[in-house]
Amino acid sequence: MKTERLMIRVTSFEKQQLKEEAERRGMTQSELIRSLIARLPEPKQKDTAG
Would you state the pLDDT for residue 17? Predict the structure, then answer.
């Protein structure tokens, strides 16, 4: 699986929330973001017959 870089913009407050939640869960901020993304529904398959 190829990894890709994702750049997001957050406020200082949101960054602090992310930092504190990651520390509370004992993970890095990147791991926390990946765990949140993993909860999203699977993407729909593109229809190749078009």
Answer: 98
